[in-house]
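Much of the work behind modern protein science is quiet bookkeeping, done one molecule at a time. The protein below has been through that process, and both of its lines are reproduced in full.
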Amino acid sequence: MSGTDRMRADAATPSPSTGGAGGRRRRLRRESWGFAIGSLCFLVGAIPFYAEWAGPVGVGVTFFAGSILFTLAAFIQLSLSGRRTPRIGTNRADRADWWAAAIQFGGTLFFNLSTAAALAAAIADPTRLGAGWRPDAWGSAAFLVSSGLAVVATKRRGELWDAEARSWHVTWLNLVGSIAFGASAIGAYVVPETGSLVSEFWANLGTLIGAACFLVAALLSRRTIDAGPGPGPEAEPEPDADPEPEPGAGPEPDAEPEPGVGPGAGPESDAEPEPESGTGPTSRRRPPCP
């Protein structure tokens, strides 16, 4: 590889120690994987066939693991993706974007508490009604508020700290998923007078739809952020060094110019060539014509 090619390769490769776009894209990719795997846990846990096979405790462990992954991904999105805490002079888009990530992180903490409580209840009495986890009201409300703020940030994403931080397809999918989680939380409410759920159908279906929306949104975010940055400005090529002469080849001798050929020689000459010695009569040079 020549020196010029090395310079171009170094310019196109982002340095991991810098906080530029290359490093931010790597962190966002980890964030998307956390949301994707966590959503898959919620999706599988809401499937009736899996619930029958794993039992209340197994389902509780699945939901709790998914909530932990959600929290880790939300923390990366809030603290390690490049977002800055709002301050005086922060524009509306960046302010809404940061608060959306912060409230979402708070919602995942509520899900940690509710999934842990559901797991403990399942271990204590697997037959009790409502022992399995469903999205709780506080976590679902936080996700709804976060999705609304994300819509505001996406509408002005050209002013964001990173224009690729929000996209419409991901924002709408997360909003639909948050609404579905809210419907599941309402359906899973146990009526004190009757001791039954408001709607077992929506309690299960809302969790399933919400998890599917979050999963697709996470996968789409990963694909968008995976696109590497465009090539940077090319480096100026280095001047090529003089080629080394081949072994055994020396400098060519200077050849004498032929008569009438070479610099200074033209079609006409002011002086006539002198005759060779020993030939012809001796003649004087004619004076130049005026």
The chain has a mean pLDDT of 74. The longest helix spans residues 48-80. The CA atoms of residues 15 and 36 lie 27 Å apart.
